[in-house]
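Illustration: GDSL esterase/lipase.
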Amino acid sequence: MPGISAMVPAVIVFGDSTVDPGNNNQISTVLKSNFAPYGRDYFGGQPTGRFSNGRIATDFISEAFGIKPAIPAYLDPKYDIKDFVTGVSFASAGTGYDNATSDVLSVIPFWKEMEYYKEYQSKLRGYLGNDKANQLLSESLHLLSIGTNDFLENYYTFPTRSSQYPVDKYEDFLIGIAGNFIRELYKLGARKVAISGLPPMGCLPLERTTNIMHGSACIEEYNNVAKDFNVKLQSTVDELNRELGGIRIVMPNPYDKLLEMIQNPSLFGFQNAETACCGTGFFEMSYLCDRMNPFTCSDANKYIFWDSFHPTEKTNFIMADHVVKTTLAVFR
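Result:
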């Protein structure tokens, strides 16, 4: 098998729109991005269902590990187990740790991503045989990127969870789910795991435009929740590393790097950190840019954000490059 001898033979991905290469195209949800101008800078200029103008961070991570330049969506009928041997994504835009989050836009819940992973494992055993499959799974990088939607799409938008939990207890609830998910991966043979922290979510253009009273500054409360969550997640990762023999779990933390880019865009060659390339009307009310949008910038590389919620390909590259050289370096 090509590439099986590599340190990391495959990248296996779970999470939300930050790492969904098009699974949502195959389900009935309004949350899709399989239309122009999405994907206009992707290979062939095609929209794929990635929530960006081009590739997403996990594509660049796969490429940096010398595997392949893009990770396919598990539900995409164009691909099968041959393609998934070297990497696959089960991620679904709009999902979260909390099942109540995936219900908001009828997307794939986090537990269902685990079910797809189990199905993938049995296909893999059928294709490679047990021993080779088990070896591949233990050497593959299992990467999780999820959690922002639990706060922005659920906790701060609907009263249900916020009436049940103060925000610090909601963080604990989500972290409990994250820990159990990793334990389950471990039982299924995963030994290399990266679980991402939260970004400075109060600086997403969608949130800044609602902060008109404060001159569209970042919403500090949301950023503080992200920082607090990340501290708790890191301590859970440390505990799990002690608890589960033979596992190596790391926590890439996008918070500081993304904030540095937002605060000093010109250092990274950006001109705009506040508004999105697509949908730069005054009110960025929509989660997505839409196919009729007249306000799409001509050069996405000058923008940190592509739409009001998602980074441009250039931002995805910088973030992936940073993570590969820091947190993920132990796996290379």
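Reading the tokens back as a structure: Confidence is low (pLDDT under 50) at residues 1-5, 280-285.
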